[in-house]
Protein backbone atom coordinates (compact mmCIF):
# COMPACT_ATOMS: atom_id res chain seq x y z
CA UNK A 1 0.00 0.00 0.00
CA UNK A 2 2.80 2.41 0.97
CA UNK A 3 4.66 1.75 -2.27
CA UNK A 4 1.49 2.36 -4.23
CA UNK A 5 0.92 5.68 -2.46
CA UNK A 6 4.55 6.68 -3.01
CA UNK A 7 4.27 5.88 -6.69
CA UNK A 8 1.01 7.80 -7.14
CA UNK A 9 2.28 10.85 -5.29
CA UNK A 10 5.52 10.83 -7.28
CA UNK A 11 3.51 10.74 -10.50
CA UNK A 12 1.33 13.66 -9.43
CA UNK A 13 4.31 15.75 -8.32
CA UNK A 14 6.17 14.93 -11.55
CA UNK A 15 3.21 16.02 -13.69
CA UNK A 16 2.85 19.30 -11.77
CA UNK A 17 6.58 19.97 -12.00
CA UNK A 18 6.46 19.44 -15.77
CA UNK A 19 3.81 22.20 -15.89
CA UNK A 20 5.97 24.49 -13.79
CA UNK A 21 3.40 24.31 -11.02
CA UNK A 22 2.85 23.18 -7.48
CA UNK A 23 0.60 20.14 -7.17
CA UNK A 24 -2.90 21.44 -6.49
CA UNK A 25 -4.97 19.11 -4.34
CA UNK A 26 -8.42 19.07 -5.88
CA UNK A 27 -11.50 16.93 -5.30
CA UNK A 28 -10.21 14.56 -7.98
CA UNK A 29 -7.33 13.45 -5.75
CA UNK A 30 -8.28 10.66 -3.34
CA UNK A 31 -8.32 11.52 0.35
CA UNK A 32 -5.66 8.92 1.17
CA UNK A 33 -3.22 10.75 -1.10
CA UNK A 34 -4.13 14.11 0.41
CA UNK A 35 -3.43 12.77 3.89
CA UNK A 36 -0.16 11.26 2.70
CA UNK A 37 0.90 14.62 1.26
CA UNK A 38 0.10 16.34 4.56
CA UNK A 39 2.27 13.81 6.38
CA UNK A 40 5.11 14.41 3.93
CA UNK A 41 4.77 18.17 4.43
CA UNK A 42 5.15 17.72 8.19
CA UNK A 43 8.24 15.58 7.70
CA UNK A 44 9.77 18.15 5.33
CA UNK A 45 9.81 15.87 2.29
CA UNK A 46 7.45 18.23 0.48
CA UNK A 47 6.71 21.93 0.97
CA UNK A 48 3.28 23.51 1.03
CA UNK A 49 3.60 27.21 0.07
CA UNK A 50 -0.18 27.68 0.31
CA UNK A 51 -3.13 25.66 1.44
CA UNK A 52 -3.79 22.81 -0.97
CA UNK A 53 -0.46 23.20 -2.80
CA UNK A 54 2.54 20.88 -2.60
CA UNK A 55 5.99 20.71 -4.19
CA UNK A 56 9.10 18.65 -3.51
CA UNK A 57 11.24 20.44 -0.94
CA UNK A 58 14.49 19.81 -2.82
CA UNK A 59 13.03 21.41 -5.93
CA UNK A 60 11.54 24.32 -3.96
CA UNK A 61 14.95 25.15 -2.50
CA UNK A 62 16.45 25.31 -5.99
CA UNK A 63 13.78 27.59 -7.43
CA UNK A 64 14.44 31.32 -7.78
CA UNK A 65 12.02 33.85 -6.32
CA UNK A 66 10.21 34.42 -9.64
CA UNK A 67 9.89 30.67 -10.20
CA UNK A 68 8.42 30.20 -6.74
CA UNK A 69 5.84 32.88 -7.46
CA UNK A 70 4.88 31.22 -10.75
CA UNK A 71 4.77 27.69 -9.28
CA UNK A 72 2.47 28.95 -6.53
CA UNK A 73 0.25 31.04 -8.79
CA UNK A 74 -0.15 28.22 -11.33
CA UNK A 75 -1.16 25.88 -8.55
CA UNK A 76 -3.74 28.38 -7.34
CA UNK A 77 -4.96 28.84 -10.91
CA UNK A 78 -5.59 25.10 -11.10
CA UNK A 79 -7.64 25.30 -7.91
CA UNK A 80 -9.44 28.49 -9.00
CA UNK A 81 -9.71 28.61 -12.80
CA UNK A 82 -11.68 31.87 -12.70
CA UNK A 83 -9.07 33.85 -10.79
CA UNK A 84 -7.28 36.77 -12.45
CA UNK A 85 -3.84 37.65 -11.12
CA UNK A 86 -2.72 41.26 -10.89
CA UNK A 87 0.03 43.56 -9.63
CA UNK A 88 3.44 41.99 -8.84
CA UNK A 89 2.19 38.44 -9.55
CA UNK A 90 0.98 39.38 -13.03
CA UNK A 91 4.20 41.35 -13.60
CA UNK A 92 6.28 38.23 -12.91
CA UNK A 93 4.13 36.32 -15.43
CA UNK A 94 4.93 39.00 -18.03
CA UNK A 95 8.66 38.56 -17.37
CA UNK A 96 9.07 41.91 -15.62
CA UNK A 97 11.75 42.28 -12.93
CA UNK A 98 9.96 42.42 -9.57
CA UNK A 99 11.72 42.89 -6.24
CA UNK A 100 11.63 39.85 -3.99
CA UNK A 101 10.00 41.97 -1.28
CA UNK A 102 6.96 42.46 -3.54
CA UNK A 103 6.55 38.71 -4.08
CA UNK A 104 5.75 37.66 -0.53
CA UNK A 105 2.05 37.56 -1.49
CA UNK A 106 0.05 36.36 -4.48
CA UNK A 107 -2.12 39.16 -5.83
CA UNK A 108 -5.58 38.44 -7.23
CA UNK A 109 -7.96 40.87 -8.93
CA UNK A 110 -11.62 40.92 -7.98
CA UNK A 111 -14.69 43.15 -8.16
CA UNK A 112 -15.62 45.45 -5.30
CA UNK A 113 -18.61 43.32 -4.40
CA UNK A 114 -16.45 40.20 -4.49
CA UNK A 115 -13.68 41.70 -2.36
CA UNK A 116 -12.97 39.67 0.78
CA UNK A 117 -9.54 40.93 1.79
CA UNK A 118 -6.62 38.58 2.10
CA UNK A 119 -6.32 34.98 3.24
CA UNK A 120 -2.92 33.43 3.83
CA UNK A 121 -0.53 34.50 1.10
CA UNK A 122 -3.35 35.65 -1.19
CA UNK A 123 -4.12 39.39 -1.39
CA UNK A 124 -7.27 40.46 -3.24
CA UNK A 125 -7.64 43.82 -4.94
CA UNK A 126 -10.97 45.28 -6.05
CA UNK A 127 -9.96 46.46 -9.51
CA UNK A 128 -12.22 44.50 -11.86
CA UNK A 129 -15.45 46.17 -13.07
CA UNK A 130 -18.72 44.84 -11.77
CA UNK A 131 -20.72 42.63 -14.09
CA UNK A 132 -17.77 41.13 -15.94
CA UNK A 133 -15.36 43.17 -18.01
CA UNK A 134 -13.02 40.22 -18.35
CA UNK A 135 -12.47 40.62 -22.09
CA UNK A 136 -9.10 42.29 -21.47
CA UNK A 137 -7.76 39.46 -19.32
CA UNK A 138 -4.60 38.01 -20.87
CA UNK A 139 -3.01 34.58 -20.64
CA UNK A 140 0.68 34.87 -19.74
CA UNK A 141 2.91 32.16 -18.33
CA UNK A 142 -0.07 29.86 -17.85
CA UNK A 143 -1.92 32.46 -15.78
CA UNK A 144 -4.95 34.67 -16.34
CA UNK A 145 -3.61 38.17 -15.70
CA UNK A 146 -4.62 41.81 -15.97
CA UNK A 147 -3.52 43.71 -19.12
CA UNK A 148 0.11 44.91 -19.07
CA UNK A 149 -0.62 48.62 -18.58
CA UNK A 150 -2.99 47.87 -15.71
CA UNK A 151 -0.45 45.46 -14.21
CA UNK A 152 2.41 47.97 -14.21
CA UNK A 153 0.16 50.78 -12.96
CA UNK A 154 -0.99 48.70 -10.00
CA UNK A 155 2.63 47.95 -9.11
CA UNK A 156 3.68 51.60 -9.30
CA UNK A 157 0.83 52.97 -7.22
CA UNK A 158 1.16 50.44 -4.41
CA UNK A 159 4.89 50.47 -3.77
CA UNK A 160 7.61 52.97 -3.04
CA UNK A 161 9.49 54.88 -5.70
CA UNK A 162 12.70 52.76 -5.94
CA UNK A 163 10.85 49.42 -6.15
CA UNK A 164 8.33 50.89 -8.58
CA UNK A 165 11.16 52.22 -10.73
CA UNK A 166 12.52 48.69 -10.98
CA UNK A 167 9.18 47.51 -12.35
CA UNK A 168 8.78 50.45 -14.76
CA UNK A 169 12.31 50.21 -16.18
CA UNK A 170 11.97 46.48 -16.75
CA UNK A 171 8.52 46.71 -18.33
CA UNK A 172 9.85 49.26 -20.83
CA UNK A 173 13.08 47.35 -21.44
CA UNK A 174 11.23 44.07 -22.06
CA UNK A 175 8.72 45.80 -24.36
CA UNK A 176 5.80 44.71 -22.21
CA UNK A 177 4.52 48.31 -22.34
CA UNK A 178 5.53 51.50 -24.10
CA UNK A 179 6.08 54.78 -22.32
CA UNK A 180 3.34 56.41 -24.38
CA UNK A 181 0.85 53.60 -23.80
CA UNK A 182 1.52 53.40 -20.07
CA UNK A 183 1.36 57.18 -19.64
CA UNK A 184 -1.92 57.31 -21.53
CA UNK A 185 -3.39 54.55 -19.36
CA UNK A 186 -2.32 56.22 -16.10
CA UNK A 187 -3.64 59.58 -17.29
CA UNK A 188 -6.98 57.95 -18.10
CA UNK A 189 -7.45 56.71 -14.53
CA UNK A 190 -9.72 58.98 -12.44
CA UNK A 191 -7.85 61.31 -10.14
CA UNK A 192 -9.20 59.94 -6.88
CA UNK A 193 -7.67 56.42 -6.75
CA UNK A 194 -4.79 56.18 -4.30
CA UNK A 195 -1.38 56.32 -5.86
CA UNK A 196 -2.19 57.72 -9.31
CA UNK A 197 0.15 60.67 -8.88
CA UNK A 198 2.82 58.38 -7.46
CA UNK A 199 2.60 56.20 -10.57
CA UNK A 200 3.03 59.22 -12.82
CA UNK A 201 5.94 60.45 -10.72
CA UNK A 202 7.73 57.13 -10.96
CA UNK A 203 7.11 56.86 -14.69
CA UNK A 204 8.71 60.29 -15.20
CA UNK A 205 12.06 58.80 -14.08
CA UNK A 206 11.76 55.42 -15.84
CA UNK A 207 14.51 54.44 -18.26
CA UNK A 208 14.65 51.18 -20.26
CA UNK A 209 18.46 51.38 -20.48
CA UNK A 210 18.72 50.10 -16.92
CA UNK A 211 20.12 46.59 -17.23
CA UNK A 212 18.36 44.90 -14.30
CA UNK A 213 16.10 45.45 -11.33
CA UNK A 214 18.96 45.92 -8.88
CA UNK A 215 20.40 48.80 -10.88
CA UNK A 216 16.95 50.39 -11.17
CA UNK A 217 16.26 50.19 -7.44
CA UNK A 218 19.73 51.55 -6.64
CA UNK A 219 19.12 54.47 -9.02
CA UNK A 220 15.75 55.09 -7.44
CA UNK A 221 17.37 55.29 -4.02
CA UNK A 222 19.96 57.75 -5.35
CA UNK A 223 17.22 59.94 -6.78
CA UNK A 224 15.12 59.68 -3.61
CA UNK A 225 18.13 60.98 -1.67
CA UNK A 226 18.28 64.01 -3.96
CA UNK A 227 21.28 63.10 -6.12
CA UNK A 228 21.52 63.96 -9.80
CA UNK A 229 20.18 61.57 -12.40
CA UNK A 230 23.04 59.40 -13.69
CA UNK A 231 23.64 58.40 -17.26
CA UNK A 232 23.14 54.66 -17.71
CA UNK A 233 25.24 51.98 -19.41
CA UNK A 234 27.86 54.46 -20.59
CA UNK A 235 30.41 52.94 -22.95
CA UNK A 236 34.09 53.23 -22.02
CA UNK A 237 36.36 52.91 -25.11
CA UNK A 238 39.22 50.42 -25.30
CA UNK A 239 41.76 52.21 -27.52
CA UNK A 240 44.63 49.87 -26.63
CA UNK A 241 43.15 46.79 -28.31
CA UNK A 242 40.09 48.17 -30.10
CA UNK A 243 37.86 45.67 -28.36
CA UNK A 244 34.20 46.00 -27.49
CA UNK A 245 33.79 49.01 -25.16
CA UNK A 246 33.25 48.40 -21.48
CA UNK A 247 30.02 49.69 -19.99
CA UNK A 248 29.63 51.50 -16.69
CA UNK A 249 26.35 51.06 -14.83
CA UNK A 250 26.15 54.75 -13.91
CA UNK A 251 28.02 57.91 -14.88
CA UNK A 252 27.91 61.53 -13.77
CA UNK A 253 29.70 64.35 -15.60
CA UNK A 254 29.90 67.32 -13.24
CA UNK A 255 29.95 70.88 -14.53
CA UNK A 256 33.55 71.23 -13.28
CA UNK A 257 34.60 68.33 -15.55
CA UNK A 258 34.91 65.58 -12.92
CA UNK A 259 33.57 62.23 -14.20
CA UNK A 260 32.33 59.62 -11.74
CA UNK A 261 31.57 56.07 -12.85
CA UNK A 262 29.29 54.02 -10.61
CA UNK A 263 29.44 50.22 -10.51
CA UNK A 264 26.86 48.09 -8.70
CA UNK A 265 28.56 44.97 -7.38
CA UNK A 266 26.67 41.81 -6.53
CA UNK A 267 26.76 38.04 -6.70
CA UNK A 268 24.42 37.98 -9.74
CA UNK A 269 27.15 39.01 -12.14
CA UNK A 270 29.29 36.12 -10.86
CA UNK A 271 26.61 33.41 -10.61
CA UNK A 272 23.76 34.04 -13.06
CA UNK A 273 24.27 32.21 -16.36
CA UNK A 274 22.86 35.02 -18.48
CA UNK A 275 25.40 37.43 -16.99
CA UNK A 276 28.45 35.15 -16.92
CA UNK A 277 27.96 34.01 -20.55
CA UNK A 278 29.27 30.53 -19.77
CA UNK A 279 32.43 31.72 -18.01
CA UNK A 280 33.64 30.30 -14.71
CA UNK A 281 33.68 32.47 -11.58
CA UNK A 282 37.48 32.69 -11.87
CA UNK A 283 37.19 33.90 -15.46
CA UNK A 284 34.56 36.46 -14.53
CA UNK A 285 36.69 37.80 -11.67
CA UNK A 286 39.74 37.96 -13.93
CA UNK A 287 37.75 39.89 -16.55
CA UNK A 288 36.52 42.26 -13.84
CA UNK A 289 40.09 42.97 -12.69
CA UNK A 290 41.24 43.58 -16.26
CA UNK A 291 38.25 45.83 -16.87
CA UNK A 292 39.02 47.86 -13.75
CA UNK A 293 42.67 48.28 -14.70
CA UNK A 294 41.76 49.39 -18.24
CA UNK A 295 39.35 52.03 -16.94
CA UNK A 296 42.17 53.56 -14.89
CA UNK A 297 43.62 54.71 -18.23
CA UNK A 298 41.11 57.53 -17.89
CA UNK A 299 41.06 60.32 -15.34
CA UNK A 300 37.80 59.30 -13.66
CA UNK A 301 36.61 58.34 -10.19
CA UNK A 302 35.23 54.82 -9.87
CA UNK A 303 32.55 54.31 -7.25
CA UNK A 304 31.79 50.66 -6.46
CA UNK A 305 29.05 49.63 -4.07
CA UNK A 306 26.96 46.62 -3.15
CA UNK A 307 23.20 46.60 -3.43
CA UNK A 308 22.75 46.00 0.30
CA UNK A 309 24.33 49.40 1.01
CA UNK A 310 21.55 51.19 -0.89
CA UNK A 311 19.09 50.01 1.75
CA UNK A 312 20.89 52.17 4.34
CA UNK A 313 20.13 55.80 3.35
CA UNK A 314 22.68 57.42 5.67
CA UNK A 315 25.60 55.20 4.62
CA UNK A 316 24.65 55.26 0.94
CA UNK A 317 24.34 59.05 0.94
CA UNK A 318 27.69 59.40 2.70
CA UNK A 319 29.38 57.24 0.05
CA UNK A 320 27.84 59.12 -2.87
CA UNK A 321 28.87 62.46 -1.36
CA UNK A 322 32.37 61.18 -0.57
CA UNK A 323 32.90 60.44 -4.26
CA UNK A 324 31.48 63.81 -5.29
CA UNK A 325 28.20 62.75 -6.87
CA UNK A 326 26.32 66.06 -7.21
CA UNK A 327 22.88 66.73 -5.87
CA UNK A 328 20.08 67.77 -8.21
CA UNK A 329 19.92 71.52 -8.64
CA UNK A 330 23.44 72.13 -7.29
CA UNK A 331 26.05 74.13 -9.21
CA UNK A 332 27.97 70.91 -9.96
CA UNK A 333 24.98 69.07 -11.45
CA UNK A 334 24.11 69.30 -15.11
CA UNK A 335 20.96 71.37 -15.74
CA UNK A 336 17.69 69.48 -15.94
CA UNK A 337 17.25 67.88 -19.34
CA UNK A 338 20.98 67.96 -20.17
CA UNK A 339 22.57 64.52 -20.37
CA UNK A 340 26.30 65.02 -20.76
CA UNK A 341 28.61 62.14 -21.69
CA UNK A 342 32.29 61.88 -20.81
CA UNK A 343 34.85 63.23 -23.29
CA UNK A 344 37.05 60.15 -23.30
CA UNK A 345 39.80 61.67 -25.44
CA UNK A 346 40.17 64.54 -22.98
CA UNK A 347 40.09 62.14 -20.03
CA UNK A 348 42.80 59.83 -21.38
CA UNK A 349 45.76 59.88 -18.99
CA UNK A 350 49.08 60.77 -20.54
CA UNK A 351 51.59 57.90 -20.67
From TrEMBL:
It comes from the Bacteria. This is Type IV toxin-antitoxin system AbiEi family antitoxin domain-containing protein. It comes from Candidatus Olsenella pullistercoris.
Amino acid sequence: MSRSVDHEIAGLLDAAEDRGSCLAVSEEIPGRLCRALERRAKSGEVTSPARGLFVRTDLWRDLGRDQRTLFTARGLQALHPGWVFCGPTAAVAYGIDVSWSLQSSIHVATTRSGFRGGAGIVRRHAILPEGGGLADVRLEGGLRVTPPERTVYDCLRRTDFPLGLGVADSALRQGVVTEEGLSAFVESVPRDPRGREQALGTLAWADPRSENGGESIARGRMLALGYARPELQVEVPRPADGGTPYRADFAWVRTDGLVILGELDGTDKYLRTEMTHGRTIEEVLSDERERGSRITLYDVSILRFRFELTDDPARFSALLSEYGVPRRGSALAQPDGVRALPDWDALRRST
